C-alpha cells in the first residue's frame, strides 16, 4: 500500500489504487500529510492530474460490465468477506485514522463501527434489488420493474470521517453492481487506501474499486467525464453546491451533502446535567470536526443560566491531548491551517460582543509544542447576527443563544440556512412532538444529541445542507445507485389483429 522511506524518520510516500494496483506515479505533484499531534509531516501523497483521473475512470469503466453482470448474491458474498476483514482489522484502521486526523482512538473505533454497519446493510442488498410484478395489466399483458446499476460512480469525501463516510457510499454502490472511484481528502488519505487493500483481500475484482488522491483537478475530471454516471459528496456547502451544479450540468445524478449548524434546544424541564453531558460530547467530541456536531445550544427561559453554569467548568476542565495519550478527551485539529481558521472565529466572536465564557486558545499540551491543539471554547449571549452563529466553524466552539419559549426556539432553528441535524432535550412529550413535527431539519434527536440514523435508514439534511433529492446509505442509497426499468410484455398470440393509431390503454 505504501513504500517505505529510505530513512526511518523520513515521511512515507503514499499511493493511488487503480485497476487493482497500488502505485506511485513518476513525477507529478505531491502534498504533505501531517501528524496533527506533532505538526510534523508524516507522509507525502501523490496528487492525481487529469490523465491519471481518466485512467481510473477507464479502469472502472472496463470492469463495469462483468461486475454489473455478476449475480447480486455473489456481489453480496464479497461484501460479507469484506465485513469480516474489516472487523478483524478494525483496530488497525482506527489507528490509521487517529494518526492522520487526530481524533481519539476510541472515537476512531466508533467511526469504523458506523461504517461497518453500512457494510452489513449492503450484505442484504439482493433483497432490496427485487423488482415488482403485475400480472395481466391488460389482456395478455404483464408488467414488471427491475433495478439495475447506474454505472461508474464517484465518491468525494471529507477529512473528518476518512473511513465512515466512504463506507456510507461504496458498499451500497458496489453491492448494487456499480464500479467506484473514491477521491478521499488529501489531508488523511491512508484510511481509503487501507480499505482498498481489504476489498482486494475480500476478492473484489480489479478495477471495481479505485482510489485516487488529488485536489480540484481530479474532482473536476470526475464531475465532467461522460463515463462517470453518479457522484456522491460530503463537505462544505459552497463546495457541495459547486459539485451539484457542475455534475448535474454534465448529466450525472448527484447527492451532495453540505454544511451544518446543528442546534440543540434545551427546555427548562430538561435534566440540565444530562443535557450538559450530551453537549460536551456532541460539541467537543472529535474536536468539533463532525458534520453532526452540536455547535449551537438554544436555551429556553430559565434553562439558560443553569446550562451555562453547568457547562463552564466542564469545558474548562476538558482534557486535551494526542490521540494515544491516556486520559485525553479531545485531540488536535486536523491541520495548522484549520487551527488558525477556528482561532479566527473565536476572535470574531469576541469582537462581535459575545461573552467568551471559556477561552481555549491558550491551551498547551506538554511534549507537543507543534501540535494543532485548541481547548474547548464556550460563548454565551450569542445572537443571530453574529458570524460565530451564522457560519459553520467546524471546531471545538459551542455558542449559546437564549430564547423565551419553544416557539421562538423553533423559529430560530428554522430561520438558519442549514438544516442538517438538530435535537431537543425535554421531559415534555407534547413539546418534543411539536418540535419533531415543526423543525426544518433532516435528522432530529429527542434527548439524543447526535441523531445519526442507523445504516438501514438514510442520512441527510434539509435546506442548504443537501443538494439533490436523495440521502446517503439505507433505502435512499439503493435508489441512488440503481436505475429503475419497467417492462411491459405481450406475446404474439395475444397481439392486436390490426394497426392501432390511438394511445394504447390497458384493460
Features:
6-stranded mixed sheet; 7-stranded mixed sheet; 507 residues; alpha/beta; single chain; Aldehyde Dehydrogenase, Chain A, domain 1; 23 strands
What is this structure's SSE topology?
Blueprint: E1 12-13, E2 16-18, E3 21-23, E4 30-35, E5 40-46, H1 50-68, H2 72-88, H3 90-101, H4 105-123, H5 125-128, E6 133-138, E7 141-149, E8 152-156, H6 164-175, E9 179-183, H7 190-201, E10 209-211, H8 216-224, E11 228-234, H9 237-249, E12 253-257, E13 262-266, H10 272-284, E14 294-300, H11 303-316, H12 336-352, E15 355-358, E16 377-380, H13 387-390, E17 397-403, H14 406-415, E18 418-419, E19 421-425, H15 429-438, E20 443-446, E21 462-463, E22 466-467, H16 474-480, E23 482-490
Parallel strand pairs: 1-5, 8-9, 8-11, 9-10, 11-12, 13-14, 13-19, 14-17, 16-17, 19-20
Antiparallel strand pairs: 2-3, 4-5, 6-7, 7-23, 12-22, 15-16, 18-21
What does this 3D model show about the protein?
This protein has helices at 50-68, 72-88, 90-101, 105-123, 125-128, 164-175, 190-201, 216-224, 237-249, 272-284, 303-316, 336-352, 387-390, 406-415, 429-438, 474-480, and strands spanning 12-13, 16-18, 21-23, 30-35, 40-46, 133-138, 141-149, 152-156, 179-183, 209-211, 228-234, 253-257, 262-266, 294-300, 355-358, 377-380, 397-403, 418-419, 421-425, 443-446, 462-463, 466-467, 482-490. The strands form six sheets. It has a seven-stranded mixed sheet, sandwiched between helices. A six-stranded mixed sheet has the order 10-9-8-11-12-22, sandwiched between helices. It has a three-stranded mixed sheet with strand order 1-5-4, covered by helices on one side. The chain is built from 16 helices and 23 strands. It has two domains: 52-258 and 465-486, Aldehyde Dehydrogenase, Chain A, domain 1 (3-Layer(aba) Sandwich); 262-446, Aldehyde Dehydrogenase, Chain A, domain 2 (3-Layer(aba) Sandwich), CATH 3.40.309. α10 (272-284) crosses α11 (303-316).
